Automatic annotation (TrEMBL):
Organism of provenance: freshwater metagenome
Transmembrane regions: none
InterPro entries on file: CO_DH_flav_C, CO_DH_flav_C_dom_sf, Diverse_Substr_Oxidored, FAD-bd_PCMH, FAD-bd_PCMH-like_sf, FAD-bd_PCMH_sub2, Mopterin_DH_FAD-bd
Residue ranges of every copy of the FAD-binding PCMH-type domain listed in the record: 1-141
Leader sequence segment: none
Protein name (record): Unannotated protein
Oxidoreductase among keywords: yes
Classification via PROSITE patterns: FAD_PCMH
Gene3D superfamilies named among the record's database cross-references: 3.30.465.10, CO dehydrogenase flavoprotein, C-terminal domain
PANTHER family hit by this protein: XANTHINE DEHYDROGENASE SUBUNIT C-RELATED (PTHR42659)
GO molecular function terms listed in the Swiss-Prot or TrEMBL record: FAD binding; oxidoreductase activity
Entry keywords, A to Z: FAD, Flavoprotein, Oxidoreductase
Length: 251
């Protein structure tokens, strides 16, 4: 709708899904340790309550979206349909290895996050398909989201990051937003950290290791210069965000 309002797109038909209650529901499956969120569940629902308790990084990202009015209307389905690298929820979905559930003329299909976003505002939706819901795991460990913008609120991300640490499995994942044509999963930095130190319960790291992790994360970013920032500043931002998130995850 933003692009329509800015005269970037002029679709012949617009379908309002607001009254499709199934898309505005969410569920928690304790036996599977997963949360499934309907594509039309607004960010205002994710900010607090049970979803925030189960998926705190998603709640943190939701709180950074626009104003209260925008959070009352904005949804994960909107972020996924737009597929902007600056979408606040998308690094969280990437770091959590989300599964996207689609419905279309040919039936239903499930797509892992890494196959969904194809480029700047490009996704794997076929003609007639729409996002029904999104499933993410409930991770037994720390997770966090942070972003940098030109001001402290109501701002599109200059750079963003989500880090998830599974303390039981000793695993870590980190994904970056606004520093490439898609959300960037920093797999090389993840592998390096896992080889370098233990991330299980009780693990500790030193400052030098956190700085090196940030540098390696920054190396995987592919930012550009644009009207919001420079590529160099974006690289600096994600390095600092990665350092801070890693330190917080082990505090």
């Amino acid at each position: 709708m933003v692009e329509v309002n800015l005269h970037g797109r002029q679709p012949q038909t617009v379908v309002n899904l607001r009254r499709v209650e199934e898309l505005r529901e969410w569920s928690y499956r304790p036996t599977q340790q997963t949360v499934t969120i309907g594509s039309a569940v607004p960010y205002s629902v994710m900010e607090t309550g049970k979803i925030a308790e189960l998926v705190p990084a998603l709640a943190q990202a939701a709180r950074t979206v626009g104003s209260p009015q925008i959070r009352a209307a904005g949804t994960l389905g909107g972020n996924l349909g737009t597929c902007s690298p600056a979408g606040d929820s998308l690094p969280v979905l990437s770091a959590l290895n989300a599964v996207i559930h689609l419905i279309g003329p040919q039936g239903t299909r499930d797509i892992p996050w890494e196959e969904f976003m194809l480029g700047v505002k490009k996704n794997a939706l076929n003609s007639g398909e729409f996002v029904h819901s999104i499933t993410v795991p409930v991770v037994q460990g720390w997770q966090g989201y942070a972003k940098v913008g030109t001001r402290n609120a109501m701002v599109i991300a200059t750079a963003s990051a989500c880090l998830v640490r599974d303390a039981d499995e000793g695993l870590i994942s980190i994904a970056l937003g606004s520093v490439g044509p898609t959300i960037i999963r920093c797999s090389q930095a993840e592998k390096w950290l896992l080889k370098t130190t233990s991330l299980r319960v009780g693990a500790q790291i030193n400052a030098d290791l956190a700085v090196e992790f940030g540098r390696r994360v920054s190396d995987e970013a592919t930012p550009i210069d644009d009207h919001r920032s420079t590529a160099a500043y974006r690289r600096h931002c994600v390095a600092i965000l990665a350092q801070r998130l890693l330190v917080r995850s082990l505090a």
